[in-house]
Design a protein that fits this description.
mainly alpha, Serine Threonine Protein Phosphatase 5, Tetratricopeptide repeat, 65% helix
């Protein structure tokens, strides 16, 4: 058997033409086509039968290119896969190529990327160089593959500069995904001048990320000449596409009258939508201030405190919230806080009642509600159920907390004759008043068909609203997961179902209110 037959032969392919030629390995192992004898195929098959992974890759390359055998992509895939199973880095690379091109197997870009990365990791450096060459010639797949590899260090040394270079190549070639990632990379490095034209191209394609960042850069005057009205137009368009950041900046602009006529009511609606993002802490602070001041919305101490309590884990807002209590115009709110601390933490119902009575005297409905709850609390030795029910009923016409509490009492027959219908009506009323717990409770009722006609579309809407108000319970989260699984039409982000299911599985019963009260 001649020496030539033991030479390692590897497939080197050109992705731009989707055909493969003989792969390069090392100069010492490079075969000379004129040396190949007629009995080569026989020898290679003998080696294949003995489990030789190199021979398997060679045989696959011949079937792929039609060299010495009739071209047959399926047979090529068969031998590439067998070579890959034995961890042959060249066989893995060729198997990846087949998934990329769809030759001999169902096209699968995700699998192709996975296999290419494995080949890189095993040391197929020639394949890396080849993809770099293809990327420079405008091959989008190669550019995005290497951008990802250089970003995360998959099979190559992590290199932010090279990753950015690959993303720019993909962006320049017109890849939407490449433009998005390149634009964001430029934002991260504060190269706003480079980011702006990329996002403008994306906006022209109606890409949500492009629309948002074009508006953001115009509004801020970053990388472009500042134009707040035009920036807000883009942000409004992005807000209509349910982008939390767009809702935040647009809402803040309306709240402050920055580049647009001040409109607190509109600001509150937008900011409430932006709270679906855990990163937009400032939304909760602005909302808390809005409900606290009652400008453009009804003054509501309970909703103001609920908003501020979402910042209980954020130390950056501790002093800001404490500062609110010291402002002269917020003395009643401070009284409310002191009453709640006595009620929930100190269990000092006498002092709590003093503070709540001061609030009631000043015309604050939450004072009346908390007086009622104090009188109805079983731990209060001076409680008075009859008086408590009277006050709670009075407050239920204006207080969501009162309406919800009274509704739960009628549902359970607690201190009142059981009346399920009246209970549901009151809880529904509390939900309409914007009480998060009531919104969540009504979602569960529509999901189960308890006291209302079962309606999963309505249930999903209410669950999503409760989630945006940080009022979704673990039980409700599990029901919302079912809504995602059933692809209920009222859910706007069904494309992210698996991601959302994972997030909803982490919902807990954390009491942000108590955490905040302990800090104040």
């Amino acid at each position: 058997m001649k020496k030539t037959f033991y030479i390692l032969m590897i497939l080197f392919f050109a992705l731009s033409t989707m055909e493969c030629n003989a792969q390069k390995k090392r100069a010492a192992n490079k075969p000379n086509k004129t040396e190949v004898k007629k009995d080569t195929l026989t020898v290679i098959r003998e080696r294949v039968e003995k489990g030789d992974d190199v021979a398997m890759n060679i045989l696959g390359s011949w079937y792929y290119s039609g060299q010495y055998v009739q071209k047959d992509y399926r047979e090529a895939v068969k031998w590439f896969s067998k070579s890959a199973e034995k961890n042959n880095m060249f066989g893995i690379g060729n198997f990846a190529m087949c998934f990329q091109t769809g030759n001999g197997i169902t096209k699968d870009s995700v699998m192709a990327v996975k296999l290419y990365k494995k080949a890189f990791t095993l040391g197929n450096s020639d394949l890396v160089k080849q993809h770099e060459g293809l990327a420079k010639k405008g091959n989008l797949f190669s550019a995005m593959l290497l951008a990802d590899c250089y970003t995360h260090g998959d099979g190559v040394k992590r290199d932010a500069a090279k990753a950015l270079e690959m993303l720019k190549l993909a962006s320049d070639a017109g890849s939407t995904d490449g433009q998005v990632k390149y634009g964001l990379a430029c934002m991260n490095t504060k190269n706003y001048q480079a980011a702006a034209p990329v996002f403008e191209k994306l906006a022209a394609k109606n890409n949500p990320t492009g629309i948002y960042y074009t508006g953001y850069l115009l509004f801020k005057g970053m990388g472009v000449t500042q134009d707040k009205p035009k920036g807000l137009q883009y942000l409004a368009k992005a807000a209509n596409l349910n982008m939390p950041n767009a809702n935040y900046y647009l809402g803040k602009a309306y709240y402050e009258g920055d580049g647009v006529a001040k409109d607190v009511k509109k600001a509150v609606d937008l900011l409430q939508k932006s709270t679906s993002s855990p990163l937009l802490h400032d939304s909760w602070y602005i909302l808390g201030n809005a409900y606290l001041g009652g400008e453009g919305v009804d003054k509501d101490f309970n909703r103001a405190l609920n908003c501020l309590s979402q910042l209980s884990d954020n130390k950056d807002y501790d002093n800001k919230i404490k500062g609110l209590l010291d402002e002269s115009g917020n003395s009643l709110f401070k009284t409310y806080i002191e009453g709640l601390k006595d009620y929930y933490i100190n269990k000092d119902f006498a002092n709590a009642m003093k503070n709540f009575k001061l609030l009631t005297k000043a015309g604050n409905i939450e004072g009346t509600t908390m007086q009622a709850l104090s009188l109805l609390n079983g731990d209060n030795k001076k409680g008075n159920v009859k008086k408590g029910l009277k006050l709670l009923t009075e407050a239920s016409s204006k207080s969501g907390l009162a309406a919800y509490t009274l509704g739960k009492m009628y549902e359970n027959g607690e201190n009142v004759d059981k009346d399920s219908k009246k209970g549901v009506d009151l809880i529904s009323k509390a939900a309409d008043m914007g009480l998060g717990e009531a919104v969540c409770a009504m979602g569960m009722k529509y999901f189960k068909g308890e006291g209302v006609t079962q309606d999963l579309v309505k249930a999903a809407q209410l669950f999503l609203q409760a989630e945006s108000m940080q009022s979704l319970t673990p039980d409700a989260a599990r029901m919302l997961v079912e809504c995602y699984q059933k692809k209920i039409s009222s859910i706007p982000d069904l494309d992210n179902t698996q991601e959302r299911i994972l997030k909803l599985g982490k919902v807990s019963n954390k009491n942000n209110l108590l955490d905040l009260l302990k800090k104040l």
